[in-house]
Amino acid sequence: MGSLKSLFLLLFLVFLTPQLAESASDYTTLVYKGCSKETFTDPNGVYSQALSALFGSLVSQSTKVKFFKATSGSGQSTMTGVFQCRGDLSNSDCYNCVSRLPVLSDKLCGKTIAARVQLLGCYMLYEVAGFSQQISGMQILYKTCGATNAAGRGFEERRDTAFSVMENGVVSGHGFYATSYQALYVMGQCEGDVGDSDCGECVKSAVQRAQVECGSSISGQVYLQKCFISYSYYPNGVPGRHSSSASSSSSSSSSSSSSSSSYSSSSGQNTGKTVAIILGGAAGVAFLIICLLFARSLKKKHDDY
């Protein structure tokens, strides 16, 4: 019976593992928030209605594209907003990420006249008409460096080489690029309506900040107004990653002032399929063994009688 219980436990863990892996997905993790100090007074609910309509428009588009701008309301209650997903997310993951942002924005910022919420996989920004905040595309919004420093010599040289490849790739990839290089995984992305040349300059600026401020840290993220970069060092090799880039396209709508860009990438999909096949096979084997043991136990009881 002890072996039978162990097999039941194994089968339980096999079926549980995909759910644990799925819940471990980190693209919905909060990175930072930016909230205006000024709130809007809304006795008639006009601003709330415009904001709700804006959120609805942005979320609905996240099933189709990775970048979208929209306008809602009229007059003083006019609101503009934008969302963008990371270039390596699927359409369903993009939607899953963006659909969380309206609730998070309200929870973290309340009824402010402007707010930006950044998750690892996407961000959303909105502002009320008349809110003027001239910010350079190179303005830093958030920066974080890993607490652990790389051991041994040569790390920074390898990281800088990976950065150089990414700087070129994000231009040729029209706004998004990710690649592995000697145990390093680097990623760069620009806002969807930024031109290739400006994108390259923005990413270069973010890289320079990471080099200076993160030093030999094994990981880092730098978010500027119009782009972001991230890097991670895996001493035992980058797990299930490969180079990916993205192409962008823009569209406009007469019903609202909007633009969008769509990306395509297969990064990580092959790994997921392989894991699913392995787990399915393991579950099948465990189930077969349990059936055989159960049949044997029935036969033993019959022989005892």
TrEMBL record:
Signal peptide range in chain numbering: 1-23
Positions of transmembrane segments: 275-295
Keyword Signal recorded: yes
Region (Disordered): 244-269
Intracellular or extracellular location(s): Cell junction, Plasmodesma; Cell membrane
GO terms for cellular component: plasma membrane; plasmodesma
Record flagged with keyword Ubl conjugation: no
One BP annotation, GO: transport of virus in multicellular host
Membrane topology: Single-pass type I membrane protein
Main location: other
Biased composition (Low complexity): 244-267
Entry keywords, A to Z: Cell junction, Cell membrane, Disulfide bond, Host-virus interaction, Membrane, Repeat, Signal, Transmembrane, Transmembrane helix, Transport
InterPro entries tied to this protein: Cell2Cell_Antifungal, GNK2, GNK2_sf
Origin superkingdom: Eukaryota
Residues annotated as domain Gnk2-homologous: 28-131, 137-236
Family, as annotated: Belongs to the cysteine-rich repeat secretory protein family. Plasmodesmata-located proteins (PDLD) subfamily.
Protein name: Gnk2-homologous domain-containing protein
Species assigned in the record: Flemingia macrophylla
Upper classification of the organism: Eukaryota, Viridiplantae, Streptophyta, Embryophyta, Tracheophyta
